[in-house]
Amino acid sequence: MDLKTMKSVFEIGETIAVEFKRCGNGIENDVYETVCSFLNRFGGDLFMGVLNDGTVMGIPEKAAQDMVKNFISCISNPLLFSPTVYLIPEIVKYEGKAVIHVHIPPGAEVHSYKKVIYDRVDDADVKVTATAQIAQMYIRKQNIFTEKKIYPYAEITDFRLDLLPQIRKMAVNHAGGKHPWESMSDQELLKSAGLYGKDIATGEQGYNLAAVLLLGKDDVIKDVCPAYETDALVRRVNMDRYDDREIICTNLIESFERLMEFARKNLPDKFFLEDENSVSLRNIIAREIVSNILMHREFTSSYAAKFVIQKNKMYTENANRSTGEGNITPDNLEPNPKNPVIASFFRNIGRADRLGSGVRNLFKYCKLYSGQEPVFQDGDIFRIVIPLDEEYSYDYGMEYCNKEKTDVKTIEKTGVKAETGVKTDVKTSVKTIEKTGVKAEKKTDIRLTETERKILGLVRENPVITQKELAEMLELSNSGIRYAMKGLKEKNLLFRTGSRRNGGWKLNL
User: In whole numbers, what is the pLDDT of the chain averaged over residues?
Assistant: First the structure.
């Protein structure tokens, strides 16, 4: 390691892949604990003769030579390290002081020091004793995909064959009118999709875990993966518990539809034009995060996957067989398939694109949807965070706010008030404007969400409509309607008249 790089490392400090040890009186046990944790995680660089804050104290040169010999002897001793490891420490001079540097690559197996397993968490070495955590570490080290585990006693009757006609139709539509699955028998389709095969290592033949998860009956899935479920929650008002919840533990095909419906019910669908075509930013974003949480999770883990919608963000969490740690961006993206059989199946039916496209799509469309970028956090638990802002609209006023006069044809065609940029119900006409007192130059600083615009349109048509009726017509939760109505009241656009039982709504436009 060159001096310039070392200086940068010392300035940044300890991380998940960097550790400093003073080693004033020789090599202590905690040095070997760090070696073990680096081997079990993603590797790292160990510096002896450096304080925790990056200050270089140095090691006497004579002592450094003996320390290197002792270090090599220890890591090569099967009574201390299992399995043993071969590393080459180097003594480097930094500002006239001797520092021992050891680069430790990630191990191919799970290592232990004095029969104790250590893992690296942030900048700390953590003793691992829980069976589930140890199992997760072994999964991370394996070069096999758990989705390919064979269940030799699974039979064709254990699967939802009633879904196959729909799957064939989706594959044909996605392929543009022709797909090999269309003319295959059920058994041939399952083999073609990689859901039935042979384990070369054991000789077992049968349906694999991917087949069970994609098409298995609910009781079969529960028997194979007892902890499998996706917990969908809305937490806008009640942050301690939830406003709306759905626990989904069915096959991946129907899980996708139910999670998409959950997103459509609880997220605003903002107006957006792309290449002169109206597209749903909500559906695009929801499709990417839903397909990710279903395709790329580690199904053998007991960690329950989550899809949570809050006021200012939504996020997903799922167990992961990680190959790195930290945030993922389009610049550092290195696509790594977690479940290639399941991912290929999703691509065939049009529910996913090529590997890596989801990250790029979310970085593109999140900025259009909320004005902010998403966050991808890689690790044993994989997280996607999507910022939300109901007030934000990418195209708000861009096309219409500079017009000096209200154009009647534009109003009737697009439902947009020319000078205010506020979208109204498509049926709005000049007579409606004159009747309700809407003026083009009024309230130019008010921005409305898509939900608020729809509510104003429905209230205009029926001033005594109830919040329950609004929720049913707009396919939103009651709490979502209450939140939107509160926003309209705060903007002085909507007032309640009369009693709670016999009253109605009055617009102030």
Answer: 84
Domain that holds residue 339: 156-393
Instruction: Answer for the pair 418, 408: CB distance below 8 angstroms, yes or no.
Output: no
Q: Across residues 100-109, what is the average pLDDT? A: 88
What SS3 state is found at 492?
coil
**How far apart (Å, rounded) are the C-alpha atoms in residues 205 and 152?**
6
Are 291 and 413 members of one domain? no
Tens digits of residue pLDDT in 386-434: 999 988 877 543 333 333 333 434 434 444 443 333 433 433 333 343 3
Rounded to whole angstroms, the Cα distance separating 252 from 229 reads: 10
Put simply, whether the predicted model's pTM sits higher than 0.90 gets the answer no
Q: Would residue 399 count as lying in a domain?
A: no
What is the C-alpha end-to-end distance of the chain, expressed in Å?
A: 68
Distance between CA atoms of residues 320 and 338, nearest Å: 8
Shared domain check, 332 and 302: yes
Count of domains forming the chain = 3
Q: Dihedrals φ, ψ of 279, to 5°?
A: -125, 155
Which CATH number does the domain housing residue 230 bear?
3.30.565.60
What's the CA gap between 478 and 468, in Å, rounded? 7
